[in-house]
Amino acid sequence: MHNIQAAYCGRQVHILNNLPVTSPQLEFHCASGDDDLGHNFPAVGTDFHWKFCATKYTLFFCHFWWGQNNNQVFDVFNDLHYCIHDGNGYVQEYTSECMWKVQADGFYLGYFNQDVGKVLYTKYRDW
């Protein structure tokens, strides 16, 4: 018998730059053990995203920089059911699209809610 780890394809992580237009440029670098997505400088209002096949061991993290004094590093995906291990209460179970929104007051995690037809966000952490 072979021990085959099931892969769940079609997973997505979105990072929406929702910072003020007049603010410093957002920069982030996201990676996993297998993939380096490089340094990104998305324009305000744009959605940087990627798709991947995930197993229960898949982890993507991002390091964010904004202005002189703001930087954060945290996992943006590490859980097949809730995007991140502490995502219960932020997203619905079995969410396949992890929606992150970067704002001046911090980071928000959300998901597309079919009932209301839009993404619902909850603040996850401060800068």
From TrEMBL:
Question: InterPro entries of this UniProt entry?
Answer: Self-incomp_S1
An annotated GO cellular component: extracellular region
Keyword terms, alphabetized:
Secreted, Self-incompatibility, Signal
- Give the GO terms filed under biological process for this record: rejection of self pollen
In which compartments does the protein localize? Secreted
Does Chaperone count among this protein's keywords?
no
Q: Where does the source fall among the domains of life?
A: Eukaryota
Q: What Pfam family is a match for this entry? A: Self-incomp_S1
Report whether Secreted shows up as a keyword of the record.
yes
What family classification does the UniProt entry report for this protein? Belongs to the plant self-incompatibility (S1) protein family.
Protein name, entry field: S-protein homolog
Origin species, per record, is Solanum tuberosum
What lineage does the source organism belong to?
Eukaryota, Viridiplantae, Streptophyta, Embryophyta, Tracheophyta
